[in-house]
Amino acid sequence: MNHAPFIWASYSIGTVVLLWCALAPLTRKKSVIRDIRKLNQIEERNRDPNS
Amino acid sequence: MTIEQQSGSMGSAFFALLRRDLLLAFRRRTEMLFPIVFLLVVVSLFPLGIGPGPQLLARIAPGVIWIAALLATVISLDGLFRSDYEDGTLEQFVLSGHPLTLISLAKIVAHWLVAGLPLVLLSPLLAIWMNLPIESLGVMVLTLLLGTPILSLIGSIGVGLTISLKRGGQLLSLLVFPLYVPILIIATAAVMAASDGLPYTAFLGLLVAGLITSVTLAPFAAAAALKISLS
Amino acid sequence: MLSVSKINFERYFEPVFEPVSFELKAGQLLLVTGTNGCGKTTLIRVLADILHPTSGDFVERTDSMGYVGHYLGIKDDLSVIENLRFMRDFLGTSNRSCEEVIRQVGLGRVSEQLARTLSAGQRKRCALARLLLSNTSLWLLDEPYSNLDQEGVDLVDEMLTDHLEAGGACVLATHGNHRPEWADAQDYRLISGAAA
Amino acid sequence: MNTNVTTMNKEKARKNWLVMFIHKMGSPPWFYNFAGKLIPWLWAIFIGLTVWGLYLGLFKAPADYQQGESFRIMYLHVPAAWMSMMIYTSMAIMGFIALVWRIRIMEILAMCSAPVGAAFTIIALASGSLWGRPTWGTYWVWDARLTSELVLLFLYLGVIGLYNSIDEPRKAARAACLLAMVGAVNLPIIHYSVKWWNTLHQGSSISVTGGSNIDPSMLWPLLIMAVAVKFYYGANLLTRARVKLLEQDKRKGWVKNLVKEHKS
User: How far apart are CA A36 and CA A27, in angstroms?
Assistant: First the structure.
């Protein structure tokens, strides 16, 4: 039996899982920063009429 | 009026709680029967699903009965702390000054008497249904007698952790089944060894060791879990 | 009896209320007031050691605490008297009989009934009976007047007076209308953490 | 209570660098910056070691006389399996510290470990099953290692599931940390009972690590890979912890300032 496809398959699964696992927090970070910006904007808008 | 709590002994608190839980279970005796009926139904489905061949049934009997016992235990576990959590009794327990570990242990014992012991008593019937050799029937009952308390003890930790969730029951099975793996392996191995006429006392010894370990550790973990769930 | 310094509790990383400090001695009553959602229940639960404060210290705290909260801790499937008998055995207190406290809170007529048949006010009275039975020195009462009729409100006041005269102390959280009469009462206005 | 104790002991803490380090770790902005500086180095070491290890393993090492080429899956499978166990253990240890001393950063680190550990478990399972096809002729055999890995995956899923089901983040973290500890106590029992169950039922005798005496030229790449994935774990864990910290402290001043600076 040719072993190569199994080796390639397992290494590609490994790469995909590890890449996904590494990239997931980065996309999460982007959306978190977007949230925080929105919060900041709301706060600034609320502060303006008072001053 | 003397303002100083005459803190009662822990033993009397333990038995008061045990008695109350048994009384409550008796008042709700129909609900108490559900896990037992569940066990009967699940085991009876196996011959229907895989055919009534006595040889095959005898071979899978220990596994089937034990897995059905695991499922029935998990079904009954959800009621272990839920009503005390929801009606505020658990908060009163925390305030009582009695250690939560002792309280958990009393409730676990009550749970086993109500949900675990009937499984043990019912197992000879299941063994006959599943065509288990008569010589290993005693071992089957023994493994359940030693094993079901462990299931209640370990399960109590999972219940303690999921009690604050509305749909905790579904998560509970995910949390506790992996922890039940060693018991399942050892208990079924004991019964199979007995069926094959091999020595099985070592397996029972392992179960006893497991029971002692879980009695000493699980109530502490369950108490910690309850404390977290109350916050 | 109870002394706390800068107690704070955070939920979702926001303080629930402004840091709380006070000292409560025997015979004193602390009235915790504040708007809805300012954290009265949370504070009482922190004081009761059900919740762990995020920061701050308990300088002093008695172990002998009785608590009546929103969830009363009464088993529906037990009768009033069974509920109390269980608590008596569980707590190991024996200074007063269950029948006596049931009569005091005015549940004599229903003492053999299952708790599930009681009205909200009657259940509250049952919880108050347990409080009397528990023989504790520090009472933590969360909205004890809710669901009670005038007679019940008077009952709570009476219980409080007896308790404080006997050298007990009490923290009582209430949102307002009624306040018990007691000379040595302090007011504590709880401020929501979000207001800061 | 915690904070007060730490402030009272501040003088004492200064003298002990370890206590000081833990104290600093508890400060979110400090941790955020410190981790931010560390992460690129960890990634660099990981990539360097992986390239070196895989070059040796996939191109330099000779084929195994018994298993043929398929043994090369070992360089992925074995480090992943080791990591899955190690991460669970470290998660439980961090969970223990978090529970006993109520340290928030430890709660975060423990909870951010779970998905990384689960990822390694999935890799160990997938590569194990792909190795099984040419060796045993089937994708799945209830072999001791694969079975333990499967149970381990359930344990990870339990921790992640519990953490995500409870709303209040700190309560969720404390509950899941406790579960991780319970799981860690059970893990060796599960591992040995599964191993023993496997011999009892006469399971497959060849395993991925091979019964054959391993040639040093095959062993080196394995060790290099095992070290490399530890750096992956470190880098990934710190990245996740930083994001979690931002998310939890989004209303706090330091995060607001950080984001404002980030914008400019």
Answer: 14
